[in-house]
Amino acid sequence: MTISKHLACWIFTPVLAAGLCLTTDAQAQNAPAGPLTLQQAIDLARTKNPTLLSAQQNLQAVKAQEIQAGVRANPNFGFVGTDVSLPAQGASNPYSYSLQVSRLFERGQKRRGRLDSAKSTTEQTADQYHDQERQTILAVKQSFVGMLLAKAALKLAQDNLNDFKHELDISNERYKAGDIGKIDYERLDLQLAQFETDETNAQQNMVQASYLLQGLLGIEKPTDQFDIAGDIVPPVLTTTLPELEQKALAARPDYQAAQAAVRVADANVKLAYANGTTDPTLEGEYDRSGTYNSAGFSINIPIRIFDRNQGNKETSKYLAQSSRFGEIAARNQVFTDVDEAWVNYTISKTLAERYHGHYLDESKDVLSIAQFAYEHGGIALIDYLSAIQGNRTTTLNALNAYAQTWLAIHQLSYASATEVAP
Predict the structure, then answer these.
(1) pTM, whole model, 2 decimals?
(2) N or C end: fewer C-beta atoms under 10 angstroms in the chain?
């Protein structure tokens, strides 16, 4: 029994180790090797995002319908035998056989109409795919900014905590030396809880932002080793609003899809009228009865007195007119989106520049002066704590202003369907 246990352990241990190694290797292959830039994250999303991969397959399925739209009607073959179960009695009751071959011939360029409709539908679906890709890229950019903000906030919280711990150590020595009272030291010690809470919350936000971005990138199982690289301070754009509006009209996939919808509707109008034409069926026949051979033919032409596809004709015309109104609405939406994103960018940029060029440096200066004054007995504890709180709030507001400006830049890129960030 002891030998069996040792044998089982000897067998099980390598298997378990191999399984753990395979799991670790799979997670390592699943996660990127190093910190990702924004462009690398976008490229990864294009190739790995399951929603985009599903849309790509749907586009291929729609394109395959062009093959079906171009097929012609198959010919029909018929074979008929009569009196084959009765004994042949010469010319009075011979065996009879008949072969027929028939085919429907389409008129009114129906095949051309089906092909035009199918190709236009493929173009529309391709534009819709590019619009879905544009939305996914925007989500990746927004999540990337969210993770950049979370990283910056975490570093700020950690730096603040370390600096405050150092200050608390100094205050502890002053308290032991009798330089400050117990209540002042304990109030400082209680303030440490706020910095520790800030660090814990920042860590939680960092993990959540990381997992959200990894999901958009198509990473199957999120990992804590995932990292990104980027600057939280946004760049200054050099483009103008009229330029962005013209670029949006030329590049917006949703507007292009609306234009393609007009072409689809026009093709369907032509197809509806083509389907109202009469299609003849031609048939050739060979007959053999006994020793006699004969041939014949027939032409079948439907008489379209009642059904001339008039209902579908009217429907297709109204749908075509509806698609033209939809194109106008899509064009108007382009201008609305670009103008709104531009206003959002200018406001966010102004706020970020205020913090970057004035308030952030001033807040650090105030804290440095307050710290020196408190350590040398120049100000009260309450004033020093107020300076600490003011610096923390100002720095977080600056980070949020930077992030909002980045989000506005990405929204502007989304609205114009062009990359506006230098």
Answers:
(1) 0.83
(2) N
